[in-house]
Design brief:
about 190 residues; Rossmann fold; 7 strands; seven-stranded mixed sheet; alpha/beta
Length: about 190
């Protein structure tokens, strides 16, 4: 049974002071607003509504923690880059996410989601640089919106740009890449737990 099948919501954190202490290894999901983080989490867990999905960018305004049984946690970070959110709210999210990522946490990996039609934005590259040596899985989401030729072209381009990291095509609609992503993340969690 997949560790993702045991996913359960734990808490939503909106203030740095409320971040839970470190515990089991964590998988942090990051990406631009409306890139499909909640849909990816639901697809990995095999659920329709574990994480709230919205067509309106900027809905995830807290850091949402999910347990994956007792052995791991999944962490859904607020999206970045949404222009229609007041500057004060964007600054608050940046502070919250920075505090989470800078804290001495048992971070097994960061799953960075990028829209396959618009990968490697300046904000994506900024986050990758800031993460430094963190283990990174890049999911090119909404791959179903591209033809096979365009998918392969974008996959090769992003892999060439991010040689140190794992990059894969992903679609929560067609289920493309879900099993491979799940297997790799479970493998990484096992490595950290040893």
């Amino acid at each position: 049974m997949s560790v993702f099948a045991r996913a359960a919501f734990v808490c939503a954190v909106g203030r740095v002071a409320d971040l839970p202490p470190g515990g089991p290894p964590e998988l942090a999901f990051a990406g631009r607003s409306n890139v499909g983080k909640s849909s990816a989490i639901n697809a990995l867990a095999g659920r329709k509504a574990l994480a709230r999905v919205s067509k309106t960018p900027g809905r995830t305004q807290t850091i949402n923690f999910y347990s994956l049984g007792e052995s791991a946690r999944l962490v859904d970070l607020p999206g970045y880059g949404y222009a229609r959110v007041p500057q004060t709210m964007r600054a608050h999210w940046r502070e919250l996410v920075s505090a989470y990522l800078a804290a001495p946490r048992p971070l097994a990996a960061v799953v960075l989601l990028m829209d396959a039609r618009h990968p490697l934005t300046a904000l994506d590259e900024q986050l990758i640089a800031w993460l430094g040596d963190a283990r990174l899985l890049v999911l090119l989401t909404k791959a179903d919106k591209l033809g096979r030729g365009a998918q392969q072209e974008i996959l090769l381009r992003v892999r060439a740009a991010l040689r140190r990291h794992v990059v894969t095509l992903f679609s929560s609609v067609t289920r493309q890449g879900i099993e491979e992503c799940r297997d790799l993340l479970e493998q990484w969690l096992e490595q950290v737990a040893k």
